[in-house]
Amino acid sequence: MRKSHAHNTAQLPVPTMEEVSPGIYAYVQLDGSWGLNNTGFIKGQNGLTMIDTCFTEARTKSYLDSVRRVSLLPMNTLVNTHHHGDHTHGNYLIKNSAIIGHELCRETVIATGLQSLHPLFPNVTWGNLELAPPTITFKEQLDIYAGDNDELKIELIYMGPAHTTNDIVAWIPERKLLFSGDLIFNQGTPFVAMGSVSGSLQAIKRLRLLGAENIIPGHGSVCGPEVMNDIEDYLTLVQDTARQAFEAGITPLEASRQVDLGRFAHWHDSERIAGNLHRAYSELRSEPIGSVLDLRQIVSDMVSLNEGRPVRCLA
Ligand SMILES: [Zn+2]
Question: Taking the model in full, what pTM does it have?
Answer without folding.
Answer: 0.95
